[in-house]
Automatic annotation (TrEMBL), chain A:
Protein name, UniProt field: Protein ECERIFERUM 26
Top-level division of the source organism's lineage: Eukaryota
Pfam families on file: Transferase
Similarity annotation: Belongs to the plant acyltransferase family.
MF (Gene Ontology): acyltransferase activity, transferring groups other than amino-acyl groups
Organism taxonomic ancestry: Eukaryota, Viridiplantae, Streptophyta, Embryophyta, Tracheophyta
TrEMBL record, chain B:
Source organism (scientific name): Raphanus sativus (Radish)
CDD domains the UniProt entry points to: CHS_like
Any one biological process term the GO annotation gives: fatty acid biosynthetic process
Gene Ontology terms: cellular component: membrane
Superkingdom field: Eukaryota
Domain Beta-ketoacyl-[acyl-carrier-protein] synthase III C-terminal residue range list: 387-467
Location relative to the cell: Membrane
Gene3D superfamilies listed in its UniProt record: 3.40.47.10
Positions annotated as active site in the UniProt record: C225, H304, H388, H392, H421, N425
Protein name (Swiss-Prot/TrEMBL): 3-ketoacyl-CoA synthase
GO MF term set: fatty acid elongase activity
Amino acid sequence: MGQSQEKGQGQGSIYNMKLSTVGATRPTETGTTHEPTGLDLAMKLHYLKAAYIYTPEMARDLSVTHVKEAMFKLFDQIAWTTGRLWRRDSGRPYIKCNDCGARFVEGECNFTVEEWLSKPDRSVDEFLVYHQPVGPELPFSPLIYVQMTRFKCRGLALALSWANIMGDSFSLLYAFNLWAKVLSGDKINALETSTMDRRFPKTNPTVKDPKSIKQVDPVGDLWITPNNKKMARYCFNLTVADQISPHFPTNGDDQIPVFEILAGIIWKSIAKVREAPEPLTVTIIRKDPNDLKPIRSIRNSQMISSVHVDFPVAEASVEELVRCMERATDERCGIDEMEERCDGSLDYIVYGAKLTFVDLSEVDLYEARVMGKSPESVYCNVEGIGEEGLVVVYAAAKSDERVVTMTLPQEEMDWVKSEFGKCGLING
Amino acid sequence: MPPPKMPDLSSSMKHKYVKLGYQYLVNNFPTLLLIPILAYTALELFRMGPEEILNHLNSLNFSLLHILGSSFVIMFFLTVYFMSKPRTIYLVDYSCFKPPVTCRVPFATFMEHSRLNLIDTPKSVEFQMRILERSGLGEETCLPPAIHYIPPTPTMDAARSEAELVIFTAMDDLFKKTGLKPKDIDILIVNCSLFSPTPSLSAMIINKYKLRSNIKSLNLSGMGCSASLISVDVARDLLQVHPNSNAVIVSTEIITPNYYQGKERAMLLPNCLFRMGAAAILLSNRRSDRWRAKYKLCHLVRTHKGAEDKSYYCVYQQEDDESHVGINLNKDLMAIAGEALKSNITTIGPLVLPASEQLLFLSSLIGRKIFNAKWKPYIPDFKMAFEHFCIHAGGRAVIDELQKSLQLSAEHVEASRMTLHRFGNTSSSSLWYELSYIEAKGKMKRGDRVWQIAFGSGFKCNSAVWKSNRTIKTPTEGPWSDCIDRYPVFIPEVVKL
């Protein structure tokens, strides 16, 4: 799916696109900068996406002005995200907080919300997320793109595309929830991101050679992940009770680790399809379990851990895989150190360096209420991932359901889908 | 080694005292003349004693007829005098439009949009950046919503929306401040140079507020940045003819339809400087408004240099090679502005300057004509005539030029510089933002005189002199209310973008 849009041309069924800019209401002091940590720089080739769809009942009276005003108030709290990337003399990127703003895109769609949501592959929501990579000129590339799409029935889709160098998916979803709060008239107060908050506990011993990160050829100032394979996307819903639980033996009323089981099933299916190289190592990205306080700031706090198995995955049981995943090693320190050692001059990828599983199921996506009602549907994904593939798991509107967004090499996708059919993850 | 400074200091002190003495003597000349005469008369009267005075009066043989006749003549002349005196025009109050924060355009955003809109002409983008760096504008100036799009979408609807937003907000505020009821408006004058739809903006206001059918409404368009004072002049003339009336003046410039979309450098300059703004002013000639009015209009002088070709063409709206309409600013603009100002000063000088300054100026003029043309022309010290100056915030160069030629201190031009920084060049309404700044700083005392100078295409120089009717308490609401504590700010010569 091509991602660079000309202004005015629609992406697929989105047309009449208009670009403008939103920022903060108060000027930031001249000379303010935001310094990315080593971990931030490791994530620079990735972009996080989220799309929220609201029905006409919720969004009919929501005009562009309302949405923009609420965005301005949001950016007052996180004004540094409206800055632009510059490079120090050493070549290390930093964010100059010059209030340049986030790009705001308005579009219209020929379908009604109902028609749109009836499409079985939810990856069609990619059309709702305007995305451009950072570069080729860093100082003139917005780090955030907001798209507001008006459906034929007056329903609304709001989507964010956000450069991972600023913060992780949890931060993005937190920012969106803040925006929804502002829209409904609540006052918000985001914490400032001090350098204190952005440190994470050092593991003992520090992983010297993190597996979850891979160096790529230098990308210069155009931050696109170099990929030899064409990637395809697929997004589907499933019910915990019907499709996940049967794969795991339950001991009475014990809570089953839904994400791990799902990851295990998918890992197995992909291992059956992918012959070389066999995916013996996977990366798990989830919320830091030691992070007891709720997310209150924008930063890269997600835990990046690696799981390695010595046995062939295709033949293993889901239980074994789940047990291995529980012993994943936190590699964040190692990644941070690797970037610091080269002072940001080398380019790495994390998502897709190895087959990556992202767990967003603990985030309450449906808290982003407009007119008191939760969104009808939410879509999450990551752009700019490596060839090994990515699986994102997050909550659906119903609490016993999950949504899975997969990005895999096109040649594997159909085979993997048929494997899913065989183990009952998808129907047919 | 530098020469000792002491003698210079003492001679400049002596010079200062001489000048002060001279000024006191000349300015109070009639009083100084009257004192000895009165003293002599009083001495004579004391010497004569009461009986002798009475004898003198009796000998003059005043009959009743004489007394009545003289009283009647005196009364007649007094009546004629009062009837023919022009009505005093009061400025009851005014309000300035504060743009919504969502319209804010930081430098970085302006430059990024500029690069995207002028993607094929990096030299024009470079030019705009250099202008912006030296412009004296701040990071909080505002452009209307239509101009925030890439590329801008200046439809007629968008222009009308901007007009409605700025004008109605300013007028609602004015109604609230003065308690004026829409139905009580007798005269309505709107000036907006570059946007003139049909029906006019004044008709738009009449429609929105349901004003009276016999209202005297006027819509002035095409008259440039000095049109606000032209509106005040027209209002003043109308208020001489219509007793017991009030006039509402709305001054604005609508940016949406006039944002230059081409790439000619001389025509890109206004894009960098012009910003959203509007002001609504209530004038009245009613005696009852005398107590609550803020200012009294003392003088208004209009100077038009359009008869000269170079003045006429110096701010010229035209199409470029690609048929984009924009305003071409000539390189001689500052020189022409200087000449127009000189012309205006020649007229207003005698009206406002104290006698001492006029005498000095006259003798310097005569001296240059008769003795030696090389004598330095004497620049009258206008600081003696005014406490506050509101120089149209047309751009940094205009303010610098006027500061130099009128020999004003930084404090005198602070209102203009800070208005340029916070609001940009809001065209005709900028004078009112500057006046609002002076009030917000608590500097406006009773009896203070304000000189408003505006320049505009044509080439025109208009000035108005107001006298403060009362000490104005710092207003709690107004365009400066949320930021006045941050001002004055230091504006660097060049801002590094």
